[in-house]
């Protein structure tokens, strides 16, 4: 195990003197981290040197989000989830609906298992998108990685993506080196990601050395996009206008599997295990790491008193069309799956497909002045 | 109190951090750079060339001096508490440049940083402090306020006078690196000492995390309250971690002597008042500092100081005296004269807006203060401000009468 000098130095101070003041806090980490757990874990370190204080810093610095119960902790590497189980298992359980320490997660990226999804009414469903993240085995994660590692991840990713062909043929744009014209185009396409400003991310150290080794890859058709070294090693996005979620998911699954094969050939497959599924930086993205969603016009349904309840029962969540922490504009909502861990990719996208279809039918009923009471579904 | 810290640190405070490392180390330890090997980081998967930061678009002192060779030499070193080069330079890597000022681009995590990373810090210090060479020169400390001459300004022009500095508590890591326990200990040590101040210096402490709404409002109205740093220069260096834990403000009942605890340094000490009596401001400054130092000595602590670098603070720009003495002064005519900048330069003064660094002047009123920090004493620097501001006010008066003014010859820097 690598020596962590600073943590050894810190051990000379008592656990009580180091224990953070969480009295004003409202996040999953703060709810779980007792003085006992702190005392038990503070002397530990992952092989790469990531410690308990590194894990929790973002949650100490950010007491709470006004609308969402944030996770308040991050992983610095694959081993974090093992070494700091005593903290992370309860956090995972709270965040992922009681998921237990010995539960198994199912991965299913077989797009043929999705039923329907090609007939969402484009008069209501404006666009469809599926995203996930992937971490590359053998490298530490964005809160912890050094410049050398981050550049290694970028290099490997560029090599892998360059081999894609057909509908997946595309190009990489490094953040630090794109021309003004390229930047303008990426902004116009809504592809360009910016340096994180959210303190949830910056306090976790994910913006260090920006924009070194960060970039965006997309296919020529602009329907398949990969972010390199933002909040995770890779964020993979499949999207298109309209309501053909089936096609979006097909491309998502096929593209991911092609990419995974290439990384495996380089002896750097994706981080995955049968308990937590795909390993990502934030515990909220474990499992599938998948957010499948649509932008859908629901002006009447969204003002109906039962809207929130319907979403909850369908295991869906709403966001504004700017993404997380934005408001809806003109009755158009971003509707996506709420769950990530404990169910497969196919299952989660199916929930979105079936749920959105139902909500569009409800919207149509409300337009005609009819009641939707009989349509409210049972809890999924 | 002392508790865990009396176990951690020996009672011989002048040996300071050495006792933490353990073993039989002598007081000469700190003077021999090559012996500092106790804190080598464990993980190094990539060669230095793969880790060297991309500084091509950067314009700060660190970027100007961090060659690949120096990076390779220092990247595996760490101070005894484990602070590394990558940590010291992170702020300069993340912040390529400030539009108007050439920033320093690196910080110290503890007193030993200035030794362990001397190969980088010495050239940075030299550039920032106008050629001051820490290897060959000595910094004079002089807090004898009686030596200050003509410190009463014309109050038709000078609205307020202020002197600030910082002090670090030897044996505890600095804000970029300190643990929560260390930061809390700084607070305990300082607050305990300040409770011993008497007379015109007697006052009280307001902890940021525990002050009442009323207290907070009063501190805002008095312009005393400091907020969580938002400048990325500070946040990227890790100075805002665990906010507002162990941060607070102490001030005397007269509201003329103020101490910030655990903001950008362990302590920032400020003496101020309305009007132009810089002599009294400086007198109180020196008295207060000496009294606080005496109080912490009684409890077995001392300030970080050495004869090469003077008072040790987080940012290399604040080494030496760490002193910024300044006034808010009305110079509506002079400030429009094209020779204004040159006059300030030659007087070794700088201008800021009345909101402080990075603000603009309002209504011809400027914050005028000393440019230099290291290589001259406190008395010398405040005298520079006194002489300089008197000259500026004279210029303003002459311009009012339609008379011409002269650009003074540049004054000598290292006296």
Q: Short summary of the structure?
A:
The complex is a heterodimer of chains A (380) and B (415). Chain A is an alpha+beta fold and 380 residues long.
Describe it for me?
The complex is a heterodimer of chains A (380) and B (415). With 380 residues, chain A is α+β, with helices and mostly antiparallel strands. Chain A is built from 13 helices and ten strands. In chain A, strand 4 and strand 5 form a beta hairpin. The mean pLDDT of chain A is 94. Chain B has a domain of 257 residues: Glutamine synthetase/guanido kinase, catalytic domain (Creatine Kinase, Chain A, domain 2, 2-Layer Sandwich). Chain B is 31% helix and 13% strand. Chain B has 14 helices and ten strands. In chain B, the strands form two sheets. Chain B has an eight-stranded antiparallel sheet with strand order 2-3-4-5-1-8-10-9. Chain B has a two-stranded antiparallel sheet with strand order 6-7. The interface between A and B is large, with 39 and 43 residues.
Question: How are the elements arranged and paired?
Answer:
The complex is a heterodimer of chains A (380) and B (415).
Chain A: H1 5-10, H2 15-18, H3 28-32, H4 35-41, H5 52-61, H6 80-83, H7 85-95, E1 125-134, H8 147-162, E2 170-174, H9 180-188, H10 199-202, E3 215-219, E4 224-228, E5 234-241, H11 245-265, E6 272-273, E7 277-278, E8 291-297, H12 307-313, E9 316-319, E10 332-337, H13 345-367
Antiparallel strand pairs in A: 1-5, 1-8, 2-3, 3-4, 4-5, 6-7, 8-10, 9-10
Chain B: H1 3-8, H2 18-21, H3 48-51, H4 61-65, H5 68-74, H6 85-94, H7 113-116, H8 118-128, E1 158-167, H9 180-194, E2 203-207, H10 213-221, H11 232-235, E3 248-252, E4 257-261, E5 267-274, H12 278-298, E6 305-306, E7 310-311, E8 324-330, H13 340-346, E9 349-352, E10 365-370, H14 378-400
Antiparallel strand pairs in B: 1-5, 1-8, 2-3, 3-4, 4-5, 6-7, 8-10, 9-10
